[in-house]
Amino acid sequence: MAQDHVLSAEELERELANLPGWEVRDGWLRRTYRTPGWPHTLLLANTIAYLAEAAWHHPDLSLGYAQVVVKLQTHRVRAITYSDIELARRIDEVVLWRPPEGAALEGFPKNWVR
């Protein structure tokens, strides 16, 4: 499968430059999201799960009281591929979204996912 191309160290480095907060550790593309607390942790985990199911590309998730750790790796090849990069971008796009300043939507008044 074309999407199963295993990324080289150089390709990963180039992609990570456009994925702030993400790192490669132990063969996984990984990010820790901090939340305001348990209810937001569950909302975040469910949002990530929804995106992953829609993409048919599933991360490993670890939940804590105020954090979600996302680990991406293409399980078929046990390595990081463009599928992982694309899902990481989509996760960031959705879960870090906040209404723009001055918008009709006010946004959550306290710390949000970061």
Describe this structure in words.
Helix content is about 35%, strand content about 20%. The mean pLDDT is about 95. It is globular. Strand 1 and strand 2 form a beta hairpin. A 4-stranded antiparallel sheet has the order 1-2-4-3, covered by helices on one side. It has one domain: 2-Layer Sandwich (Gyrase A, domain 2). With about 110 residues, the chain is α+β, with helices and mostly antiparallel strands. About 25% of the residues are buried. The longest helix has 18 residues. The chain is built from 3 helices and 4 strands, in the order H-E-E-H-E-E-H.
Compact summary:
The protein has about 110 residues and is of the alpha+beta class. About 35% of the residues lie in helices and about 20% in strands. Strands 1-2-4-3 form a 4-stranded antiparallel β-sheet, covered by helices on one side.
